[in-house]
Target: Alpha-protein kinase 2
Amino acid sequence: SVVIQECYVQNTAREYAKLYAAEAEPLEGFGEVPEIIPIFLIHRPANNIPYATVEEELVGEFVKYSVKDGKEVNFLRRDSEAGQKCCTFQHWVYEKTNGNLLVTDLQGVGMKLTDVGIATLAKGYKGFKGNCSFSFIEQFRALHQCNEYCEMLGLKSLRTTHQKQRKATSTKSKNLPNSSTLKKMVPKKAREHRDFISSEH
Model:
């Protein structure tokens, strides 16, 4: 059921958040770590809707710190401490799961988060079925900008790995055997250049 899956998503994300806190809290200057509040499943056999969820009510300004898609630009994500720490949490989970899982929809009041989502690279990863949007992960990789909290945790920049791959391919093209005639080389270079441009956009 949707409700059971919702509980599974939030409580899985909560377990990751606890591990993140255990690693981040002892670091000097890190400070408070965002927490995903627990969500409980209750069974009401006599009711028309036999399952429901219960969670703590969050009082205060409800803010979205991370989004599923790039259409929504949220400055609080960049400018607030909670927002930056949420972005670092996403990066941390992404690195811990080797890019297979991303916690999305980080939202809540202050450092208390709820109603989060999970995107996985492959269907069925860790038992997640419906929410397997590869595009969220692709987008996160493209848009994430590391902040001081990423640095404190020693997370690898997602940008440098991408640039290293590009450098490797560009040096390869220079070391082509000299026996190739110039005529043969021109179209090949032009083609590589075109691919390079299209992959950039």
